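User: structure tokens for this one?
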Amino acid sequence: MEPAYDEKTAIKESFSQEPFDGPMSSSRSWFQKIPKRYIMAFMTFLGFANVYALRVNLSVAIVAMVTNHTTLASDGTEITTVAQFEWDSHIRGLILGSFFYGYILTQLPGGWLAAKIGGKHLFGIGILGTAVLTLLSHPAAHLGPYALISLRVLEGIFEGVTYPCAHAIWSKWAPILERSKLATISFSGSYFGTVVSMPLSAWIANTLGWPWIFYIFGAVAIMWYVAWCLVVSESPVDHLTISRHELDYIQQGLTFRKGGLSSPLPWKQMLTSLPVLAIVVAHFAENWGFYTLLTELPLFLSDVMDYDLYMAGTMAALPYVVMVVMVQVGGQLADLIRKRDILTTTNTRRFFTGWSIHVAGCVHDNRCVHHDPRSSHLLSLPCRRPGRIRLGRLCRQPP
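Assistant:
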């Protein structure tokens, strides 16, 4: 009987063994010896960082687009930039929310397409399409608010496939007992992208002008797409330089079949399943607060709390700094709990999801943010909740 592979053995032997069925058997670079599932995790991490950078840059850019703001020149002279657009709160709300009109349309089709054509290709196309449309945001804004709204709807359609694609990718790449860890590494890229893009967008608007927010982030996402096409493969079996030991370790217990789904989805059973409905309700509650903060917070801090552009972008990123930390810590903790049989997988899901919602609800009920910058850090407290709720959801992925 062959010995079972564990995580430490697979990592160690990945650095010492020859690649699986690959052409480069005699000399491999250090990069080629890195376990391929971790390269996949890093690339999806960067992918989701781009996803959220492209999504939230408008939340900061619109502050510069519709309000006057003052910057200091190198000699100390104050320079006032006059707002280019006179959009009322209703139009601004439509612009900021329009992304999600398209985003909701491709959630279910995205999962189906990922199973049919592969998560790698659809994930890359989703981000590439959003990046190209982002480059068109500046001219679209000058065509009028409804042109920009239409553009954002299209961006949402492209980005809507990314999360379903990620689940399809990890169904092939993640060993069973590393699933929470690898998935949370990749999904935490969304929080990292938010943390970086919000203050960076404010800095770009102050120094280069708000149109450059869209040009810079769009260009970075296109460069990521080129790297994605060159580095990753659809499944471990298709990878040319993966080690035999890592391939064996990943494939233990995986039941996916190349070529997509082998039987029709049981729609009736899913839609009438109480666990599924409970997950939907929990996810709905999470997204209500999460995306409200994500899209509206910079404008709220500018209009209501009278923050300058850079401070609004920086403070709006604070909740997601907390989320980056909590998701990483929680992902390791969830896998550790299951590996040591402290809790069953079901009870791990219940713990992370239920406890997080309860604590965040208490924080929401008791939080009061006044017109005082010292109290703004309290906005980060509810964002510990989505991180842990998502851990509960990631543990649900089937083996």
